[in-house]
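For reproducibility, we list the full input for the zinc ion complex.
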Amino acid sequence: MSEARSLLENLSELLKRASMFGYASNLLYWDQQTKMPIDEAKGRAEIYATVKAEWFKLLTSNEVGETLKKLVGKETELDPGGQALVRRIGNIYERAKAIPPDLFKAFSEASLRAYTVWVEAKEKSDFKHFQPALEEMIGFKNKFAELYGYEKNPYDALLPDFEPGITSEDLKRIIQSLKEKLVPFVSLLIEKSNKPNESLLRGHFPEDLQRQLSLESLRLIGFNFNQGRLDTTVHPFTITIGADDTRVTTNFLPGELDSALLSTLHEGGHALYDQGRDSLIKWVYFDRGYSMGIHESQSRMFENMVGKSLSYWKFFYPKLQNIFSYYESVPLEDFYRAINVVKTSPIRIYADEVTYNLHIMFRFEIEEALIKGEIEVKDLPEIWNSKMQEYLGILPENDAKGVLQDVHWSLGYFGYFPSYMLGNLYAAQLFDAVKREIRDLEEEITKGNLKPLLAWLREKVHPFGLVREAPDLLREVTGEVPNSQYWMEYIKEKFDQIYGIS
Ligand code: ZN
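The corresponding predicted structure, in tokenized form, follows.
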């Protein structure tokens, strides 16, 4: 065995021990969200924090640091998976070590407070109540940026927490070309009079029947129920609790047909990614994807490119009609148009496939300016509203539905929002590549055969996706750096057809 290989084995052993605490913390979290009696909330938060802290302590231990140091210069002797793993652990280790423990503790405590204040401020729609806490979080993040180091833009020091390999310049290039085409296209769709009839999706849909539908769709996309399960929560999520245990949750709304089904497909996409990890890294616990954009690309692909496609519904619609007989009299085409309705909403999480990225673009502009100190927190509500007007042509009713709608900044997550947009773009870029390589992909989906798609993802994206940077992965798999062209083409082609634009 080469020296590098044996060092990697040492590293794996150390990571395994850390990972046990990481996975245990995930199990505590999953239980809290799905089963735990309500009075345990406070106690559970403490247990969770203690177990999670143990993970972090072991992950950033001196032994890990020393092993990483010995590996420097020898990485090329490892196979690509080993190299990627060393790179990823090295990245986590260095970033963790850059922040003095006292500063990190102060930040963690402040973010807990900021979160509570944000909840109160949102309830009362009172931005001023949140302002000091937000200023404090930005102060922390500026200190972090200085410690991580950067060339020109402090925001670039924060992005690698969510999207390593992507810079603010990349984002500006992507956003500029997308904005030019997308803003007028959305206006065109909004002005069209032949709107899909959304009311087809509203009615009374008993939970047990919706669950049947969700389970069937998970089975269809290839979710492995021997290594996972589906449960119910208020906010759907995906969580991995061990090498062979990835669970998804969804939220059944009795009056809405599409909400739970599409959430299930979204989380199912995340779960397929986690279930497809290479055996070399399966045991290693990560508290988030390396590139959140790539993780999100997998959920968006199954939610939108598959789950809102005509091919998928040609196969799945009869199953829906079997469960909800009302749809026997609704033509497939009307149903397909209804799940693809486009309308501007002030709330990001309710945005449709077309307008979603616009929400992200202006959030990026605002948070970058905040970190660079170009704008002041006190002016945020006004700036937010004018950006929303510029990008979406609407104004939120109040700050609760505007600048206070998202939790991210209260937790100190600056640099997270772009991953949502990148996820959409990566999904389209990858989906274009798979369609070029598997010519009859859509035809197979029409027959209910999603195996070729999953097999392709399992070969090209899933094995080392959790440890590779997005630009690398995309260049290798699609031949191009991340760009917005494929997503825009996909959107135009799909919605030109749905809205009858010639
Ligand atoms: Zn997601």
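Residues 266, 270, 296, 299 surround zinc ion (CB under 6 Å). Strands lie at 230-232, 238-242, 245-250. Both points were considered when choosing residues for closer inspection.
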